[in-house]
Design goal:
Blueprint: H1 2-49, H2 57-67, H3 72-97, H4 103-126, H5 129-152, H6 164-181, H7 185-195, H8 200-228, E1 237-238, E2 241-242, H9 243-264, H10 270-291
Antiparallel strand pairs: 1-2
Helix pairs in contact: 1-2, 1-9, 2-3, 3-5, 3-8, 3-9, 4-6, 4-8, 5-10, 6-7, 6-8, 7-8
Length: 292
Amino acid sequence: MTVAILANAQRSAVRGKMGAALEEFLESATLFGFFLILGAVVGAFAGMIGVGGGALLAPLLFLAFKALGYDAGQSAHVAVGTSLAIIAPLAAYSLRARRAVDTAFLWRAAPWFVAGGVAGGAAAAFAPGAGVSFALGVTAFVTALAILFAEGGRRQPKPIPNTYLTSGLMSLVAAGASAGTGLGGGALVAPLLRLLGSPSTSVAVGAAGAGVLFATPAALIFLGVGLSAESVAVPFSLGYINLAAVCVITPMMAAAAPVGAQLGLGFAARPPRLLFAFVLALVSLTLIRDTG
């Protein structure tokens, strides 16, 4: 009888281990499937509307991590840190692909963008998760409104004086907000460049260059702070950067962007941008509501 009891206990333990392994496999498969879809969708949007198309990345990562049951505070940090780690190589790739680079502007603005990346990244990495997710939702909503207002009235705003101090301070703020929310260079830096009177041909290049300059130090800060914090619950994470997401989403976005650009040729310029603004506003309001 004792042998039978031990055998039953052993079989129960084996079934328990198999059940846990199956649950872990399904969880991993769900994550990787989501990363594939997210990379394709965000990449296609980025290709269709141009600069600013990656603004959906961090909000959707946060909502997905939270929906899968991971700690909300850690999910906010991992979402922003992962988004920054994706932005940096994609911005570098975009910058390399665009031959006409305004090197004079990038050299002049580089210290401000780097300083903004360090300040914004450090502030967000050390901030409570609820504050990070709320700031992410608010910034994403403001970005959506800016797109809607820009589409509602096509008249360009009157440029402000482009002095070194004025442009530098504004670059610092834009880079800091972008680094603290993981929204990418196009969401906040591109409107700044237009406001400073940059020609439309150099806006995308300037936004890409800014993305490299602020996202790289900010991502490294999220990595370091996450490594020094308590164990991160989101699987495949190193510090506050999810390596699986970076490895899957980055090439998917790079592959989907040209497809999105081709799809965008079949539309007038306005409908894809309005659709993107509507989706971004909906996601950001959901994020703000969940945070509250």
